[in-house]
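Narrative of accomplishments. A recurring question from our advisory board has been how the design workflow behaves on a single, concrete structure rather than in aggregate. To address it, we present the structure tokens for one chain from the evaluation set, followed by the sequence designed for it. No filtering or post-editing was applied between the two.
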């Protein structure tokens, strides 16, 4: 018996190690002035404070909101 398993890409999250990556579109005003935005997590949405002056491609971290790791910890949501 040969079993082949294919895992499809998730429409919101991408996995890098134990971390989950989600791309969050911001307006120019939100990035420049700062804002509070809703961010999807595996257990529901949370509010995230975007600091003023945030640059394109900058990563913000929600600790412990990623996937379980092999060492018993939990990754982060980036």
């Amino acid at each position: 018996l040969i079993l082949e398993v294919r895992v499809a890409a998730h429409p919101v999250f991408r996995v890098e190690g134990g971390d989950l990556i989600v791309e969050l579109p911001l307006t120019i005003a939100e990035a420049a002035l700062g804002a509070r935005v809703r961010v999807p997590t595996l257990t529901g949405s949370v509010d995230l404070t975007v600091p003023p002056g945030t640059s394109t491609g900058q990563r913000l971290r929600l600790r412990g909101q990623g996937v379980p790791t092999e060492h018993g910890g939990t990754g982060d949501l980036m």
